[in-house]
Write a structure and sequence with these properties.
Elements lengths: L1 E4 L4 E4 L1 H11 L22 H8 L5 H14 L5 H8 L7 H16 L5 E3 L10 E7 L11 E8 L2 E9 L7 H27 L6 E5 L2 H8 L11 H12 L3 E5 L16 H12 L7
Parallel strand pairs: 4-7, 7-8
Antiparallel strand pairs: 1-2, 2-3, 4-5, 5-6
Helix pairs in contact: 1-5, 3-4, 3-5
Organism: Puccinia sorghi
Protein name: Reverse transcriptase Ty1/copia-type domain-containing protein
């Protein structure tokens, strides 16, 4: 890993690993693409024909997704959803999955200069951890499971992120967003404890940013009935934390949702929001 310490920031990057992956695939001079996955792509269990077509290439699929996972977990949060989706086919890849693996490496070819940038902001507004949580709804065409995405910032620095398929089928978009939020709250608790232990400072209530109006209303005033009883425990737990001033849940416009790019094969505009916050790069308006 390449670590560079400046007067006001630290940058982390893995250019050697990216170059190694490109060389293994013969993509050193390929034409770059703008997003890790083809925008809106839906990957499904490959047919026998698709599996045989990939098998004829004699390629170790898992080794290439493994390299991508090493990048996504350490310095490239923008790869998280792509790696999560593609790795789910490690035991059963087809030609379409492989085409998307190549797509990710072509994206890396054009974004090799991006570095995870940690530039702490010590202002009064940065005395807590700030989360962005988001979710798709039933977007997996085979299982109808939703996908959660979240990213945590402390002093404006990205410190944790993930993209994962939810464990249970959500019956509404609000339920899918609830699952993402509750997972983020659980993660924030140990991150808060860790920061307080290492830095010896007491943090203010964690801030959670969501873009679902219905979710915020239900946290404030949720009444259980026969159709929503299965949500009752999570809602009351979140409300208790909110009432005890342990968390603060804010509604933000969808255009400001940084975690949107962690939930799906996003377009370039959604991806730019994540890149600007994690790599501190600025893009000219289009």
């Amino acid at each position: 890993m390449e670590l560079t310490q400046n007067s006001d920031s630290v940058t982390l990057a893995q250019p050697k690993l990216i170059k190694k992956g490109l060389e293994l695939l013969g993509l050193e001079d390929c034409k770059p693409v703008l997003t890790p996955l083809s925008p809106g792509v839906k990957l499904m269990t490959p047919s026998e024909k698709e599996k045989k077509e990939f098998e004829s290439l004699k390629i170790n699929y898992r080794s290439h997704t493994g390299l991508l996972n090493f990048l996504a977990c350490r310095t490239r949060p923008d790869l998280a959803p792509a790696v999560s989706m593609l790795s789910s086919f490690n035991n059963n890849p087809g030609i379409k999955q492989w085409q998307q693996v190549l797509h990710v490496w072509k994206y890396l070819r054009g974004t090799m200069e991006l570095k995870l940038t940690l530039r702490p902001d010590s202002s009064a507004s940065c005395k807590n951890v700030k989360y962005f949580t988001d979710a798709t709804w039933a977007d997996d065409l085979e299982s109808r499971l939703s996908r959660s995405g979240s990213i945590c910032f402390w002093k404006s620095c990205p410190v944790a992120w993930n993209s994962k398929k939810q464990n249970n089928i959500a019956l509404s978009s609000t339920e899918a967003e609830l699952n993402a939020l509750s997972d983020g709250v659980q993660e924030s608790q140990w991150i808060t404890y860790l920061i307080e232990e290492l830095w010896k400072e007491k943090l203010e209530p964690s801030e959670f940013n969501v873009d679902n109006q219905g979710l915020l209303e239900k946290i404030k005033n949720f009444g259980s009935n026969s159709k929503t009883k299965h949500l009752d425990i999570k809602m009351k737990w979140l409300r208790e934390l909110k009432d005890n001033n342990q968390i603060n849940v804010r509604l933000i416009p969808s255009e400001e949702m940084v975690a949107d790019a962690l939930t799906k094969a996003s377009n370039a505009n959604s991806l730019k929001r994540l890149q600007e916050r994690c790599f501190l790069v600025l893009f000219s308006p289009t």
